[in-house]
Fold:
Amino acid sequence: MSEYLRLAGIRKNFGAFEALRDIGLSIGQGEFVCFLGPSGCGKTTLLRIIAGLETQTAGSIHQAERDISLMPPAQRDYGIVFQSYALFPNLTVADNVAYGLVNRKQSRADIANRVEELLRLVGLPGTGDKFPAQLSGGQQQRIALARALATKPGLLLLDEPLSALDALERVRLRQEIRSLQHKLGVTTIMVTHDQEEALSVADRIVVMNHGVIEQVGTPMQVYSEPASVFVADFIGKGNRLVAVAEGGGMLRCGHLRLPWPPSAGAEPSTGSSVTLYMRPEDRVVEGLQAGDPHQCVGTVRRVDFFGGYCFVDLRVEGLPDQPMNLQFSLIQMHDLGVHEGAQLRFALRADRLRAFPPKPAA
Ligand code: ATP
Structure:
């Protein structure tokens, strides 16, 4: 995949406050990238800098090998969709979609054809004569998407485009955006604070925290191989366990002896405290062998029902201060007889554990 967008050394200060620190990122042609992070981490500021709506304090941006670092927004090649739809209420749907085309001196017939083509693309053919107020939130956002794509931009920027919609519409529209993006092949960046949204649509996720990038990876990588304690905490559910390095490639966590995961890098010195992460689904309940060193017995304290699956909170023997939260399908809940107060035997999937040694003192 050839590089389409390159950010190097991007910094942004608002007065004394450093909103972005030394951001470097390369995005490939046709990629769908999500900027994901908690409120205030700087994801919108970074998107606005790429759009030229905000000027970086330092650093450069190249798009299709053109240096656009200081180029005014109107000269850049992108379409943008905001959370708030931002349609012109006094213009018809057709005029909203045609907005960027009129300035390009195309014939009225060509514009009308292109508008109808775009309305078909977003699943709203024949709505050109309506006004925005006559459409639902999801429909308005589809129109905003059509408007952003009207000029066939090289880059599509989406700033929390689904946040204002209800849950069902959010899922529907994110799938539509994903398939549209696939069909058109337009390089896309979407800002979101919703991890499920990012995991389900992105080719790669840029996880941000306090103005820096914590990890860039595929959804599977950021979920299964979080690069930092922050990412492990932020993406998905996880059990955070405290262990101690025993030397010889082993960790002690209560009664459990666990191998130091080679993926975690060099083994810390004996006696160091280590943070372990275990996903709720990374447990084994079938075919347990007596003497398995990763086995636990827990008492169910609470069951949270989520439809087809449940999260089960357990107090684990030998780990008095380290409750565990495990995920089971409804069928497993039934077959294993899991309910509040029940005892449950399970083993940790030691090969799936993530380990983070203490950070060296700065
Ligand atoms: P959210 O999801 O809440 O929008 P975000 O990750 O998109 O969060 P930004 O909007 O990029 O965060 O803001 C990053 C930080 O920069 C925040 O602490 C914010 O208060 C600050 N900030 C953003 N714009 C300005 C501004 N114009 N002046 C001063 N501070 C700003």
In short: The mean pLDDT is 93.
